[in-house]
Amino acid sequence: MTETNLLVVDDNRDTCESLADILNERDYRVFTANTGSEAIAKARQVDFQASLIDIQLPDMDGLTLLMELKKVYTEMVVIIITGNAALPNAIDAVKKNANGYFVKPFAIEDVIQRLEEALEKQRLQRELKVSEGRYRSLVESATDAIITMDISGNIVSWNKGAEAMLGYTKNEVIGKPELFFMPGEVKVRNSEILKKVEASGCEKRVDSLRETKDGRCVLVESSIACINNESGQCAGYVTILRDMTEKKLAEEKLRKSKARFSGILDVAQDAIVSIDEAQRIIIFNKGAERIFGYSFNEVKGQPINIVIPERFWDNHKRHVENFGNSNMTAKDMNVHDYKIFGLRKGGEEFPAEASISQYLEDGGKIYTVVLRDITDRMRFDKERDEIQLKMMQNSKLASLGEIATGVAHEINQPLTYIRSFIQRLHRKLENDTFDKDKVKEWINTSLSQIARINSIIQHLRTFGRHGGEGKQKISIETVLNNTLLLIGERIRLRNIELKNDIEPGLPTVRGFASQLEQTFINLFQNAIYALSERSKDAEIRVDISISEDKASIIIKVADNGMGIKKENLGRIFDHFFTTKEEGMGTGIGLSIVNRIVKEHNGTITCESEVNMGSIFTITLPVA
């Protein structure tokens, strides 16, 4: 027999263990509980088909527990065991739909026999219910005409397919002989067929004609069979009529649909798993077998929880139920930071992304999940991020090398002043022409120059080190000023005029100051290169303002340099793409700028025209 989940509830642990040992040998998967509350908790985690319950429990009586378990599993087989043979208890147990009642001490074989009988009855009732439901659904939804008649050939039932095919409503035909919508020669033939069917008890399948209400003749495939009573005698007939044209079209569509569906399932690398409304698996494709490690036969009919880590069971159940109650037909499950994890057969968890869809089948909902194992992608993303961080750091170091001359010149100016001050002070002391007020002025000026040197050196250290600070509220104007500490002198030495237009009172943005500073430096260095062939009137403009809706800071960095060819504009943010001469650039500067801007939830665009210059526009959301 198929393994059955069985719950044994008894306040005596020895009794539970004894029953579990015996039942485990009979292909039952036994769980035990010593209180009603413990039993209810386990019933919410495991799909139980049957339960043995002691009527006396510490926190509730067994009949109350029976009712609670039936709320969770209405079809659960429940057998009551008791040490008290009181008749009222037995009657109550029967009233509450117990499937058996045994008094201690009892013969375990009798309990097992009753248990198996009840489970078999449960299975047959379930199959009967499903069969009847499918029959009703089939008859009402069938496009074929399905007609039942009594032994005299008078119509008893007439489905919607018959209405659609022949044009008569149910009220127009019930009680009338089926012969009334047949051409004359067909009536005679049909009467003979009915006699043969009644005599042989076998189905007859023939091609025939039927007249519609509007007088048309329809060629149909007619299947006729007897409806036997309990004695096995023919008590009536059922006729199924199918339009031959529709049949051929439907068969061809079905063949193609099955072929497409089977092909998708067989070749899909993703896991495609379908579950019914009870969240039991009904479809498990090859991709799912490969990803989860189970074969379809191992998971068929099992709860979907078999492939979900236990800590996500409740969330997943609610997620599917909420989706089922919505009007959506499909949904991405990886939303609002909701993480998806799968569970392989060996117990290994893995990250995944998934989408879910729903559709109705035979009156019930079917949910289909398409799941992708993203373990390799996450590993790749991590390695990519590490590489990009290294590239960003290398780009910083390369930038420091390129701006070193300007920084050195920036530092040399205050050093020259300080040296000059010391020399003048030395001469004053030698000549005894010491002017105390003048010396104080020189000292204060020298201290301010030293502070400037210190500011430049400290910012070099800050810019050069690896990131690590969290996102903070940042003034873009401050970022620009710090950038110009490092690169402003280089711009001036190249005889480039720098024009700034910064709207006052700008709000802050949230981000990494060092990364945004690197963005400015990369854009400035590109502008310097673009202006290398311009002998006069070279200009870089920086405009910073707030958007009309006050939601974003807009930064424009423009130059009047050589510009970018139209065919290259779409590639300038690609890794390693450069239009510079060999040895003049690596092609990672703008790609790093693009990445930084996106990580700050912003956008960057470029407008350019050859020999007219370029404008880079960055939009960043305000903090």
Structural class: alpha+beta
Extended strand count: 23
Mean pLDDT: 81
Shape: elongated
CA radius of gyration: 42 Å
Percent of residues in beta strands: 15-25%
The unreliable regions are none
Report the sheet with the most strands, covering strand number, pairing sense and barrel closure.
6 strands, antiparallel
Question: How many H/I helical runs?
Answer: 17
Estimated helix fraction:
40-55%
Distance between the termini: 65 Å
Write the layout of secondary structure elements.
Elements: E1 4-9, H1 13-24, E2 28-33, H2 36-43, E3 50-54, H3 62-72, E4 77-82, H4 87-95, E5 100-103, H5 108-141, E6 145-150, E7 155-158, H6 160-166, H7 170-173, H8 184-200, E8 204-211, E9 217-228, E10 234-243, H9 244-267, E11 271-275, E12 281-284, H10 286-292, H11 296-299, H12 313-324, E13 330-332, E14 340-343, E15 349-361, E16 364-373, H13 375-431, H14 436-464, E17 472-474, H15 476-493, E18 497-502, E19 509-511, H16 513-530, E20 539-546, E21 552-559, H17 589-599, E22 603-609, E23 613-621
Parallel strand pairs: 1-2, 1-3, 3-4, 4-5, 18-20
Antiparallel strand pairs: 6-7, 6-10, 8-9, 9-10, 11-12, 11-16, 13-15, 14-15, 15-16, 17-19, 20-21, 21-23, 22-23
